[in-house]
Structure formats: structure tokens, C-alpha cells
């Protein structure tokens, strides 16, 4: 890139958004939503989930949540009164499975399901005597054609399994179950944001937006079926439907990208794809800071002008590092000293530690501000009078970035209140959700 290096003060000007800039971002998203509803098949994807739970439902259903980092398989028992019990197993997805053949990946998934059944004391023979129903949460874009049908689109988060793009993920999963001798019927597939929406609606019927802030980011909302004009739905279709926005794909034409965003995008395996996700999500935040540190070594003498061993490797400075640094309240930034001594064989000076701390804060706070603006845009899409809305609204948020990144939720909520121009909101609330993908998929299967 030919752009000059950005000093900390220059970064401050470009990465901290005032109310006018936030409003510009909100307006940009709303234009993108309308484009997706009318012309773009890669965004504003109908989920075919057209009614929400009442909270009174009961029964046990299986679910599977394939995300950017983890696989979760679960048995969800709905207890009524908005309550549920979840028994689940969690597996970290091996890196080699993300780029290997799709059958290898899905056979591994099927084995995880089989292991869960064993832990629950459910024998495969019992499953095969009486077919059980499963809902699947798939955290990647699919072109959905029914509640239990979806063709996989271009994937992100480091996933490029051979033979998956353009295929029906449900057919492939059912084939993997058959190879493992498991007779489970997949009755629904939802995006993780749709699953989170349904999960929170089970306990709060005021839910109108759901958000994932994790390895990747996405959101869902409710739209009138008639507004999804790119599809010719039958006249007797339900009036409303949950829509998977795929907002991570949006923003190339309106987001305030800086030098390091552009470098990351050009060096990624899909340049031009998912600009919002690349500015916000956990998969990319650490890499943005690493790129800035590399630039500061070259142009501002960070680390005495010598890049620490290992920091030249892409994605070798993680968002977990950032969260740990953000939680450090010591005056000498001892966490930074520990990280760089142990992971990069470098003992940075106090000035270097101050610079690293400031870079981490700049990028993490910007992510939180962008997330708040995007949430506000989805509320405004459904409630044009927002922020002066006169009804109760719940925004359900799930994901490790929101739950476990130090201070992230506080920064996001602070920005959201600034957008609403109030000190404390009484009617519109952002609420945390845990295991939304698993629970929502099971409810949808029901």
C-alpha cells in the first residue's frame, strides 16, 4: 500500500466516530438492506422461519451448530415458560478439516453427534427405531430455498472445504449420518443469527434483532415477506419472515476503511469479500493490530525498528491477545510484557507497551462502535421512528467477542446509548444470549 503510516493521533481521528459519522454508517447499512431485499441474492436471505415460539413449547430435540471455530452438538429439552435444559458437547474444528474434502469434515461432524448420543445413554439402535429430529445451525452463507434446504455460498473464516460450495448442506449431512449408521432427520437449517433470534424469542417475544459477534459476525431481523421482492413468494405466504442479513458482506462502499483494513483485505484469500466482518469480527481484529505493529516497526521505531520473532507471521497476534491486554490495569502494562516475552521472545520497552496498548484499544473500540451502529440500522429498518420508538425492543447478542472480550459489550452499549441520545434506555435493550445457535436450531426443528 502506498498510503503513509498513521500516527496514534491520526488513528484516533479516523477510528473514533462522532454522532454524524455513526449516522452515516447507519444510513449506509439501510441502503444495503434494501438492495439486498430487492436485488442481491448474497444478502437479506429469507430463512423460511415465519412464526416464533410462544415460550410454552416442550419436548427434546437434537441440534448441531457448525461455526467458524467450534462444532457444538446438543440435546435441547424445552421445559415451557421460556426455559430449557441443554446437554451439549463442544469440539474445536481442526484446521486441516476446514480446507480438506467436505466428506472428511462432515464424517467428523457425524462422529461428534454419535458421541453425544452415547454420552446421553441413547443407543443408535433406539434412534434408528424411532427417528429423531434435528435442527442445524450453519454459520456461513447459504442460499436457502426452504426451511430444510440450503445451497452453500462462498465461505469465510478460513473455510474452503473441497466440494461444498454450491451443494445442499443438508443432503451432505444426511449422507454423513447414514455412513455412520445414524437415522436422524434434519428438519430445519438456520443461520446462527436466526437460531439466536428464535432462542431469545422463546423467552422474550419483544425480540426483533439478533446478532452474532464471534469469530465472524452476522445478524437477523424480521421483514415483511412482500418486501423481499427478489423472490416471488406465493400469495398465501406468511406475512412476516426472519431474514438472515449476512451484514458481514456489506459496507465496501460506505464503511470508513483505513490503511490496515485495505492491507488485510488485499492479503486475504477473498479480497473484496466481507468488508464489515473484516473490520469487526474476532477472526480479523488481532491481524489488524499485527499489521499496524508491523507498520509501526518500519516507520515509527516500534521495538527499536526490529520486528519480534513470530510477529511477521499473519494471524499470529490474536484477538485473545487483545482481550488479555484490554483487561490489564497495571501502569506498566505487565500483560503486554508477559505476552511478548513468552510468545515473541521480546521484552518491549514501556513506550512500546504504551503504543501496543493504544493500538489494541483503537481497533477493539472501533469494532464495538461499528457493531452498535449496525444494530441501530437494523432497528431503524423495522421501526423507522427509531430512536424515538414507543415499544419494547430486544436485541439478542451471542458470540465470544461480545461475551468474553474485555470491555467490548460496555463500549458497544455506550455507543448504542449515544446513538439513541439518552443516558439510560428503558425500552430498547441489548441482551446477552448463550448457546443461541444450538437452542434456536432445536426450537426451529420442533
UniProtKB/TrEMBL annotation:
Enzyme class, UniProt record, top EC level: transferase
Domain annotation Hexokinase C-terminal: ranges: 209-446
PROSITE patterns, per database record: HEXOKINASE_2
Alphabetic keyword roster: ATP-binding, Glycolysis, Kinase, Nucleotide-binding, Transferase
Hexokinase N-terminal domain span: 9-202
Pfam family, one: Hexokinase_1
Entry EC no(s): 2.7.1.-
InterPro entries hit by this protein: ATPase_NBD, Hexokinase, Hexokinase_C, Hexokinase_N
Protein family according to the UniProt entry: Belongs to the hexokinase family.
PANTHER family hit by this protein: HEXOKINASE, PHOSPHOTRANSFERASE
Name of protein: Phosphotransferase
Amino acid at each position: 500500500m502506498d498510503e503513509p503510516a498513521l500516527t496514534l493521533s491520526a488513528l484516533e481521528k479516523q477510528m473514533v466516530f462522532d454522532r454524524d459519522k455513526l449516522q452515516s454508517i447507519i444510513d449506509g447499512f439501510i441502503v444495503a438492506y434494501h438492495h439486498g431485499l430487492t436485488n442481491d441474492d448474497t444478502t437479506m436471505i429469507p430463512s423460511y422461519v415465519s412464526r416464533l415460539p410462544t415460550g410454552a413449547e416442550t419436548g427434546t430435540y437434537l441440534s448441531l451448530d457448525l461455526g467458524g471455530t467450534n462444532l457444538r452438538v446438543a440435546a435441547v429439552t424445552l421445559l415451557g415458560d421460556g426455559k430449557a435444559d441443554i446437554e451439549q458437547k463442544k469440539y474445536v474444528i481442526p484446521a486441516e478439516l476446514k480446507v480438506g474434502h467436505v466428506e472428511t469434515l462432515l464424517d467428523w461432524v457425524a462422529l461428534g453427534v454419535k458421541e453425544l448420543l452415547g454420552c446421553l445413554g441413547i443407543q443408535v439402535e433406539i434412534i434408528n427405531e424411532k427417528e429423531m429430529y434435528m435442527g442445524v445451525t450453519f454459520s456461513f452463507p447459504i442460499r436457502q430455498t426452504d426451511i430444510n434446504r440450503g445451497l452453500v455460498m462462498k465461505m469465510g473464516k478460513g473455510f474452503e472445504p473441497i466440494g461444498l460450495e454450491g451443494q445442499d448442506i443438508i443432503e451432505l449431512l444426511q449422507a454423513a449420518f447414514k455412513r455412520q449408521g445414524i437415522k436422524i432427520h434434519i428438519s430445519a437449517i438456520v443461520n446462527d443469527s436466526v437460531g439466536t433470534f428464535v432462542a431469545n424469542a422463546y423467552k422474550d417475544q419483544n425480540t426483533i434483532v439478533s446478532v452474532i459477534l464471534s469469530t465472524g459476525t452476522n445478524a437477523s431481523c424480521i421483514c415483511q415477506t412482500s418486501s423481499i421482492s427478489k423472490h416471488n413468494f406465493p400469495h398465501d405466504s406468511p406475512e412476516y419472515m426472519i431474514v438472515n442479513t449476512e451484514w458481514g458482506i456489506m459496507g465496501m462502499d460506505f464503511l470508513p476503511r483505513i490503511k490496515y483494513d485495505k492491507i488485510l483485505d488485499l492479503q486475504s484469500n477473498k479480497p473484496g469479500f466481507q468488508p464489515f466482518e473484516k473490520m469487526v469480527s474476532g477472526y480479523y481484529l488481532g491481524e489488524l493490530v499485527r499489521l499496524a505493529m508491523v507498520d509501526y516497526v518500519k516507520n515509527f521505531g516500534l521495538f527499536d525498528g526490529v520486528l519480534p520473532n513470530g510477529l511477521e507471521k499473519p494471524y499470529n497476534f490474536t484477538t485473545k491477545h487483545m482481550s488479555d491486554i484490554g483487561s490489564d490495569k497495571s501502569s506498566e502494562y505487565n500483560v503486554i510484557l508477559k505476552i511478548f516475552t513468552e510468545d515473541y521472545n521480546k521484552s518491549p520497552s514501556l513506550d512500546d507497551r504504551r503504543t501496543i496498548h493504544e493500538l489494541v484499544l483503537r481497533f477493539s473500540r472501533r469494532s464495538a462502535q461499528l457493531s452498535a451502529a449496525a444494530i441501530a440500522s437494523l432497528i431503524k429498518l423495522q421501526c423507522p421512528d427509531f430512536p424515538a420508538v414507543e415499544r419494547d425492543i430486544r436485541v439478542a447478542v451471542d458470540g465470544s467477542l461480545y461475551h468474553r472480550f474485555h470491555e467490548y459489550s460496555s463500549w458497544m452499549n455506550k455507543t448504542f446509548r449515544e446513538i439513541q441520545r439518552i443516558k439510560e434506555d428503558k425500552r430498547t435493550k441489548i441482551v446477552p444470549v448463550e448457546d443461541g445457535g444450538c437452542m434456536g436450531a432445536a426450537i426451529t426443528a420442533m
